[in-house]
């Protein structure tokens, strides 16, 4: 829709006219209309609004299921992945290695312990995961 068409669809009453006139609304819309396609492409390429998936990161998945879900997410264009952690450190390291093997280091890996550890425990435990470069 053109800016004029958008404004024609608006129900501009007295209380709106106190803040903005139809002409001012058209000017504002025309100004951003020039960048509309770029913003649309940014949204489609997942650069406009950062989003992540936790689909493959839930505790309890087998290693094979986790790999399968990560691969599906990568194929869908996801580039940010969140894994739930908080159990046995060796298990967390294994899962982080699987995630990094699948997503590489050019995609973001987020880890979330859901307050399983106290703050001092979290700081100490996270040192074990530095090699995986979590965000």
Automatic annotation (TrEMBL):
Quick check: keyword Lipid biosynthesis in the entry?
Answer: no
Q: Which residues form a coiled coil?
A: none
Going by the UniProt record, its keywords in alphabetical order are: Magnesium, Metal-binding
Q: Does the keyword Metal-binding apply?
A: yes
Top-level lineage group: Eukaryota
Stored InterPro entries? Enolase-like_C_sf (IPR036849), Enolase_C-like (IPR029065), RHMD-like (IPR046945)
- Which cofactors does the annotated protein need, by name? Mg(2+)
Q: Name one GO biological process term.
A: carbohydrate catabolic process
Enolase C-terminal domain location is 66-129
UniProt GO molecular function: hydro-lyase activity; magnesium ion binding
The signal peptide stretch is none
Put simply, this protein is called L-galactonate dehydratase
Name the source organism: Colletotrichum salicis
């Amino acid at each position: 829709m053109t800016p004029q068409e958008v404004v024609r669809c608006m129900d501009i009453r007295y209380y709106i006219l106190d803040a903005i006139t139809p002409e001012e609304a058209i000017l504002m819309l025309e100004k951003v209309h020039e960048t509309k396609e770029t913003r649309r492409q940014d949204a489609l390429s997942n650069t406009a609004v950062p989003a992540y998936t936790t689909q493959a990161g839930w505790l309890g998945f087998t290693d094979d299921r986790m790999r399968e879900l990560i691969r599906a997410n990568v194929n869908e264009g996801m580039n940010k992945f969140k894994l739930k952690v908080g159990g046995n450190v060796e298990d967390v390291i294994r899962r982080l290695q699987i995630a990094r093997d699948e997503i590489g280091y050019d995609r973001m890996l987020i880890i979330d312990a859901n307050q399983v550890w106290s703050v001092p425990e979290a700081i100490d435990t996270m040192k074990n995961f530095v090699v995986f470069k979590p965000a």
